[in-house]
Amino acid sequence: MLSNSVAATFDLLGDRLTLTILRLAFVEHARRFSQWSDRTGAPPAVLTARLAALVDAGVLVRDRAEYRLTPLGLDTWEILVCVWSWQREWTPEWALLPEFVHTECGHRGPPVLMCRGCGRTVTPHDTDVELDRDALWHITSGRRRSAARTAPLARVDARFDEIMEAIGDRWSAAVTGLALAGVRRFSEFRVALHMSPTTLTERLTRLVEAGILHRPETDAREYRLTPRGRALFGVFAFLLAWSDQAHPQNPEPGLRIHHRECGAVLLPALRCRGCEVVLGRTDVRFERP
Length: 289
Known about the structure:
The chain is an alpha+beta fold. The chain has 13 helices and ten strands. The strands form five sheets. The chain has a two-stranded antiparallel sheet with strand order 1-2. Strand 1 (60-63) and strand 2 (66-69) form a beta hairpin.
């Protein structure tokens, strides 16, 4: 059976060093091994493995000593913008991050998430999430990267440490995704993901400690998203959309977002807050503070 597309996406992109590689490729036009090595301080063997995984996934292509983003790689830009927006609003690293600018109108700051189908702004409250519990099991089965906290990268101006609590391994990403889908109770998470009580408790505890979830005093068996957690909606919307693009031949992903207003499966897009124009990759730039 083909691997689940969402699981493959979490495995590939839910990684601090991988996101840093992509960010440096976009913002600083890094193409050579030495550029990523100098900026991240990652061990050569680890950096080589991440670059090889991105090549194998069709995100990068290697041409002699250089690595260049493919069309599929270029399409990760919206995921990175949503990660940037979340970091900008919800982490102390905001002052270290480059500024997001719409070149045409000059507006600076985070864009708005919208439905490409109907053009309306989208929030988690405007959507319904379809869950295929059989397909969800494949997200958390098979090969998994260790969820242990890893040492931060050296020599980078802003890291992805805090968002890794939510997307840094399949279990955490699946739990956060289900919470965005409206799942709240311990028993519901366990049934949906076939997780052991010990593993589920550990992931839920870490997400509470990270401020992604909280336990209401009225019912300690529930886990609800905080505003910080709900703000991850754009990241997950674009991760799901990209996984469909990267794995068009794969089975159903297990998670599908429907925009309630127009009834269609959500195809997310970004819109400028200043001039209301739908943003393309070449319409924007990042400026260092």
